[in-house]
């Protein structure tokens, strides 16, 4: 990385931004020196039924392990995102919805519209028997009803568990069963890039395996023909006809669960990350306003999917808590053509665009013309999230897309953190391509070595967070022990992020990527163990090892080594079968790009697979395999090299 390249805050941004360099130092300094009063003051940005008198109450130590924020406070998240704006901005636009097909009509909803839609949705849920604390699975395309469904759950105190619409029936079933969810909201079909996605049909297949499921509410999105199961499935448009326009918001404790979101880790089974009401909403609202310097009236577009945490925090909760206008886009950035994303920016006069490096790399590959064919004059700020952004893509985003006038806010965070953790504030921090720069107020990052020694000054090592913050996940659903073991056991007293990180001479943080067996394919986080578990479920497979290898557009691509059961012959056909198998076990985005059949995998004498070697071979970097002397059978490596898939 070119360390020398620095883009200082422009004079214009110094003047206009809410927080300048000095303001940041003050905020961050106070948040660390006196977190109690700092966070109680910040809590005023929410509307409380009972205002909290305590801020953080937490310990990361094993014998007293607990995390709570604003625990004596009461509020309702949906009322914070809707009702409290009605008096001042009831007629302001809350949601702009842009359809997949550019020839179809966009829709928009004022805060008053949103109130009615969410209340009606909540009343349908209530009538179907959903009560406070129930888990509701949401498997939806990017249509306005997806946002209504989240907020309707929050309104009545139900816990939503959104499953990304790209997941397979098996993956949905696993998530329904894990959180014992009796209710599911879906649509007949989804649409993306002109194609339809059979959502209801996938739910039907999932339901056959998920005993917990009792009721399915189906939103009519495409009008496609779907099967309905008597007694279990209901059409939303029929159910909503005769419900009231108003639904009281349930008073919730700040620590009552708001949602579960499953994410991959380094073991086979996805974890149900649990976020609660008060701290999460405060963090989403606080970070949305600071990192994007959000001002009322601006159009904010987070081009993520509601199925991921980015969509939860920056399409729905953060922007709506701040009374923003949030844009929801059904389609993909480059359909019908490579100009679409910029056309949408012009059409809705988007001021802030927040997207992922993988999308930028795909668009960059189409050249500058599709960008230059549009105006983009409305843009004032650009954001990125999901993986380290390569400086080349950063510069393209800055120069070609933003015409050198929009700061690039590179936000490092995780499903577990609820919102931004390390990111430049546009009026405060000089930018460096590929660098997430400084911690948000309240965040106390440290870099530690493998033994947990805290490294000071310029340093490279593992990134930990030394104290709790309001948006921190509270537990793994139903598995507090796994929560502790995954995040707090490695470096006692600290939250371990599983990311590597470097701090430069200027105190800026550069995220270097995961240090565990989690890979990042087109911004989708995947545990290699999850893909391996799926592969070994197939009757022909004895053993599998999955690694990531660099990919120009996707960031990483999935490379799988598969050992077949004895007597099973390898073939191209079997390769295709296994790729399809993973698609159906997890989802299309988890399909391996390459499968190499391997009679044996490189193992230590104690039987541990040496992934370092497998990664090197997949990358084609076979000259520097390092020490192979600890291998049980070094000859295995030569066979792997000879049969590598390029
Ligand atoms: C992992 C978390 C946070 C929402 C989207 C992904 C990587 C995320 C950045 C960034 C470098 C990043 C990390 C992290 N990551 N943003 N700006 N720079 N790396 O959420 O699916 O929970 O994945 O994504 O490796 O641990 P997620």
UniProtKB/TrEMBL annotation:
Residues 83-468 form the AMP-dependent synthetase/ligase domain. Acetylated. Deacetylation by the SIR2-homolog deacetylase activates the enzyme. Residues 530-608 form the AMP-binding enzyme C-terminal domain. ATP binds at residues 386-388, 410-415, 499, 514, 525. CoA binds at residues 192-195, 310, 334, 522, 583. Mg(2+) binds at residues 536, 538, 541. Its cofactor is Mg(2+). NCBIfam families: Ac_CoA_lig_AcsA, PRK00174.1. Belongs to the ATP-dependent AMP-binding enzyme family. This is Acetyl-coenzyme A synthetase. It comes from Stakelama flava. The lineage of its organism: Bacteria, Pseudomonadati, Pseudomonadota, Alphaproteobacteria, Sphingomonadales.
């Amino acid at each position: 990385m070119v360390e020398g390249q620095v883009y200082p805050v422009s004079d214009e941004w110094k003047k206009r931004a809410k927080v300048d360099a000095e303001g940041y130092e003050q905020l961050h300094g106070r948040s660390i020196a006196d977190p109690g009063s700092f966070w109680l003051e910040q809590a005023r940005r929410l509307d409380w039924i009972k205002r909290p008198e305590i801020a953080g109450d937490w310990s990361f130590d094993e014998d007293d392990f607990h995390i709570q924020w604003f625990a004596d406070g009461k509020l309702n998240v949906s009322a914070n995102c809707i009702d409290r704006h009605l008096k001042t901005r009831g007629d302001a636009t809350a949601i702009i919805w842009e359809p997949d097909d550019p020839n179809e009509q966009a829709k928009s909803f004022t805060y008053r519209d949103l109130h009615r839609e969410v209340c009606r949705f909540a009343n349908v849920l209530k009538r179907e028997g959903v009560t406070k604390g129930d888990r509701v699975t949401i498997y939806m395309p990017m249509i306005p009803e997806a946002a209504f469904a989240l907020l309707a759950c929050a309104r009545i105190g139900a816990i939503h568990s959104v499953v990304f619409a790209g997941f397979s029936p098996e993956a949905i079933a696993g998530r329904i069963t894990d959180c014992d969810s009796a209710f599911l909201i879906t649509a007949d079909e989804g649409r993306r890039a002109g194609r339809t996605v059979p959502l209801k049909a996938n739910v039907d297949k999932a339901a056959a395996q998920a005993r917990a499921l009792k009721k399915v509410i189906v939103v009519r999105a495409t009008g496609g023909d779907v099967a309905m199961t008597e007694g279990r499935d209901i059409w939303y448009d029929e159910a909503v006809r005769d419900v009231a326009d108003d639904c009281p918001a349930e008073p919730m404790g700040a620590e009552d669960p708001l949602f579960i979101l499953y994410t991959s880790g380094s073991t086979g089974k996805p974890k149900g990350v649990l976020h609660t009401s008060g701290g999460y909403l405060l963090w989403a609202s606080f970070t949305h306003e600071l990192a994007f310097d959000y001002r009322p009236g601006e159009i904010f577009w987070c081009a993520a999917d509601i199925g991921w945490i980015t969509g939860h925090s920056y399409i729905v909760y953060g922007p709506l808590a701040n009374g923003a206008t949030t844009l929801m886009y059904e389609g993909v950035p480059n359909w019908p053509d490579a100009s679409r994303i910029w056309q949408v920016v012009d059409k809705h006069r988007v001021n802030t665009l927040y997207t992922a490096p993988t999308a930028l790399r795909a668009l960059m590959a189409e050249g500058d013309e599709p960008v230059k064919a549009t105006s983009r004059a409305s843009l004032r700020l650009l954001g990125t999230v999901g993986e380290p952004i390569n400086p080349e893509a950063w510069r393209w985003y800055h120069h070609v897309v933003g015409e050198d006038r929009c700061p690039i806010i590179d936000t490092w965070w995780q499903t577990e953190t609820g919102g931004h953790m390390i990111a430049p504030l546009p009026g405060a921090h000089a930018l460096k391509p590929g660098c997430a720069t400084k911690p948000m107020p309240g965040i106390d990052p440290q870099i530690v070595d493998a033994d947990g020694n805290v490294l000071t000054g310029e340093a490279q090592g593992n990134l930990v967070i030394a104290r709790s913050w309001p948006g921190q996940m509270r537990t793994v659903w139903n598995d507090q022990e796994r929560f502790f073991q995954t995040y707090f056991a490695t470096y006692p007293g600290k939250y371990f992020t599983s990311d590597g990180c470097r701090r430069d001479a200027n105190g800026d943080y550069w995220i270097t990527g995961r240090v565990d067996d989690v890979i990042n394919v087109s911004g989708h986080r995947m545990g290699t163990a999850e893909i391996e578990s799926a592969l070994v479920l197939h009757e022909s497979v004895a053993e599998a090892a999955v690694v990531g290898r660099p990919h120009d557009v996707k960031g990483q691509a999935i490379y799988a080594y598969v050992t077949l059961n004895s007597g099973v012959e390898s073939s191209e056909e079997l390769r295709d079968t296994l790729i399809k198998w993973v698609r159906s076990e997890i989802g299309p985005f988890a399909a391996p790009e390459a499968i190499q059949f391997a009679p044996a995998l490189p193992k230590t004498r104690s039987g541990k697979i040496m992934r370092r070697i497998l990664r090197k071979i997949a990358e084609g970097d076979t000259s520097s395999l390092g020490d192979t002397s600890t291998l049980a059978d070094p000859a295995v490596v030569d066979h792997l090299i000879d049969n590598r898939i390029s």
